[in-house]
Design goal:
By secondary structure, the chain is mostly helical. Helix content is 78%, strand content 0%.
Length: 514
């Protein structure tokens, strides 16, 4: 028995010996092969790097290649435009002026983005675009060769207004508005109307404006700018500031509604200022235009909500095309037939009604509209800056305009603070909301030139008033946009409570606001 067991054990050991050594041999061989592969790859990588270094200068790579590519692309755009229009893209032509303003405004915005001061929030790029257009208009050599037809400029500004209204309509969230209840309506309607009325009174006594022009100016400067407020609030919301009480959500939702109130009031005052007849007749005509615009927009919005259907391909592109084409036609067409207020209200109603049941598809349409806005934004602010001529300003015009803006802003800040009382906010939070509600940019950039364009076409004797409105709108952007962005960025982290965004629903908070 012993001999047999020993032999079996010996036999088993012989069988197990190869099985125990083979993996070690395979492991060693695989390590050797891996090291050889690494050496080959490293050698190839070093050769590739050396080749790239040799080839980095001829042809150039990286930033130099990108700069040359962009420069040639811009030149080819000019060449294609010249082949179609000839003299229009030469100095003095309309296309030449538009290209120069567009590229200058884009560069101005990029330069302002590059300017970063430690512990100071970034200034809005639209300020650089505005200054670029202002520089082009007031530098003698440039202003001699850059001219843009008033019709072209007006059409582009109205198209930019249409895109702003579409974004405002799509940006309204019915659930957030319902949850925030009356405090959102108070914040959106109250400060705008109070500032419009105070501006009318101040401009009547300081600038000798007639009452209808005073209220028109009031609604121009009474709108807050989502272009400044929304990005600043989103940044605070991402970092958890004020999200427990829904302060960023409140300001984002109210900013779009505030613009709607201002644009509606401006359209009503514009029709009163440029039409003859009694005030009662003009007010009734304005209500008629409002009714027509809202009904037309609601009907078209219901159509776009269901056409195209969910089962079609390229759904986002088709929806965006329908909204853009219908809204631009409504805005430009309403100016052609003399019903100025109809187009804007139709656009707001159409975009809001159409996006109610789109759920996640609404976000994709908003992104596409936002991409188109990036094209029109430099044109809008560049054209607004180019409308302001230092030579045509009176000696005391700037001082009076600044005083008017400053006094109306003080009234707005104080009224906003009072309207936020008994809404569940602390003293510091009410101060922050009041100061965050001062930036002006986008709406002023559209409505100011619109009044000037209307005066040029229909009532040249009213052009001095319209030019003063344009100057106030320009200075309001220049003063409030950078200061508002700085106030929000600096004051927000200091006065707002910070919470973990993952533990709080930032869209619909649990706090009951009254």
């Amino acid at each position: 028995m012993y001999t047999t067991e020993s032999q079996n054990e010996h036999h088993l050991e012989d069988k197990n010996t190869p099985s125990s050594t083979n993996p070690q041999i395979l492991k060693d061989s695989s390590i050797i092969e891996l090291e050889e592969t690494k050496e080959i790859v490293l050698s190839q990588t070093e050769e590739t790097k050396s080749q790239m270094e040799k080839m980095s200068y001829c042809p150039p790579q990286g930033k130099w290649n990108k700069a040359i590519t962009n420069g040639v692309a811009l030149f080819m755009i000019w060449c294609v435009a010249w082949s179609f229009s000839g003299s229009e893209v030469l100095p003095g032509g309309n296309l030449f002026g538009l290209l120069i303003i567009f590229y200058s405004a884009t560069i101005g915005g990029k330069v302002l983005e590059l300017i970063r001061i430690p512990s100071v929030p970034q200034l809005p790029p639209l300020l650089g675009m505005l200054l670029a257009g202002f520089t082009i208009r007031n530098v003698p050599f440039l202003s001699d060769y850059i001219h843009i037809n008033n019709t072209w400029s007006s059409t582009l500004r109205n198209t930019a207004l249409t895109i702003i209204l579409i974004r405002a309509g799509l940006g309204l969230d019915p659930r957030a508005l319902k949850h925030l209840k009356r405090v959102c309506l108070r914040l959106a309607i109250g400060p705008c109307l109070i500032e419009a009325c105070s501006t009318a009174v101040i401009s009547h006594f300081f600038m000798n404006f007639p009452w209808q022009w005073g209220f028109l100016l009031g609604f121009v400067v009474g709108a807050v700018s989502p272009a400044v407020v929304v990005p600043s609030m989103l940044l605070l919301q991402e970092n958890g500031y004020g999200i427990k009480k829904g302060i960023p959500t409140l300001l984002i939702a109210a900013s779009s509604l505030d613009d709607i109130i201002a644009i509606t009031g401006f359209s009503t005052c514009l029709s009163i200022a440029f039409t003859s007849g009694g005030i009662l007749k003009n007010v009734l005509a304005s209500f008629r235009d409002i009714l027509i615009g809202v009904l037309a927009g609601a009907i078209l919005g219901i159509f776009v909500r269901y056409f195209p259907s969910e089962d079609q391909t390229k759904l986002t592109l088709k929806r965006a095309f329908f909204i853009l084409s219908m809204c631009i036609s409504a805005v430009l067409g309403s100016h052609q037939i003399g019903l100025h207020a109809v187009g804007g209200l139709c656009t707001l109603a159409l975009s809001f009604v159409a996006g109610v049941n789109w759920s996640t598809g609404k976000i994709e349409v908003q992104r596409l509209i936002k991409t188109i806005w990036y094209i029109f934004q430099p044109l809008l602010f560049g054209l607004v800056g180019s409308e302001v001529s230092v030579a045509s300003l009176k000696s005391n015009a700037i001082g009076i305009c600044v005083v008017t803006i400053s006094l109306s802003l003080l009234v707005r800040i104080f009224s906003t603070f009072l309207l936020m009382c008994f809404a569940g906010f602390s003293f510091k939070e009410k101060i922050f909301i009041a100061l965050s509600w001062i930036p002006k940019a986008t709406v002023q950039a559209v409505l100011g030139p619109l009044a000037l364009e209307t005066a040029r076409n229909s009532a040249p004797h009213l052009e001095p008033y319209a030019r003063d409105v344009m100057t106030v709108a320009f200075l309001a952007i220049l003063i409030t946009a950078p200061n508002g962005a700085l106030i929000i960025g600096i004051l927000g982290p200091k006065v707002l409570e910070r919470h973990d965004p993952s533990k709080i629903n930032v869209k619909l908070t649990k706090l009951e606001l009254h």
